[in-house]
Design a protein that fits this description.
The protein has 186 residues and is mainly α. The chain has one domain. The longest helix has 39 residues. The chain is globular, with a radius of gyration of 18 Å. Bound molecules: zinc ion. The site of zinc ion has 7 residues, from α6.
Length: 186
Amino acid sequence: MASAFGHVAVAYAMGKTVDTTWISTRFWVFSVFCCVLPDADVLGLLVGIPYEHVLGHRGITHSIAFAVLVGLVVPCFLVPHSSFWSKHYGVLAIYFGLVTMSHGLLDALTDGGLGIAFFAPFDATRYFFPWRPITVSPIGLTQFFSSWGLGVLLSELIWLGIPVACWLLILRGMKRKRASRGREAH
Ligand SMILES: [Zn+2]
């Protein structure tokens, strides 16, 4: 896994890209929930499910199918009175699906563990990207508070923190441009 910090940073950048009128505290709570949810599969390790099993770590909860399912369900809690077929529901479903999927994509950029079962439950093959610059995060908290954890944070600062910061600056620039264009139009 990438660390929770890395996953949340990317989810934050994704959330900032969404129409601001749709953003609420609950939106952010679900954004954080969705970006870390796939790692709930580590609980399987505690009950004896092997890492390499399709229900194991980086298995089905890191798949595209799981992300689609989460994306379809989460908007029910945000816009309960909105029709499933409305634009608002659809955009939120795509957003939360992508936030959930971002987890597996980041994990596939890490340099350790097994790959990601992107196509589970149809195909249990594990995949990594050919380029894996992010130091893999330890599963246990104890190991995280060590030089290993420090290395993880440093690599995420470079490979996730900098791109996220750049993207937020671009968004801010675009927002300002839109605002000044709006003022000129009046
Ligand atoms: Zn993971």
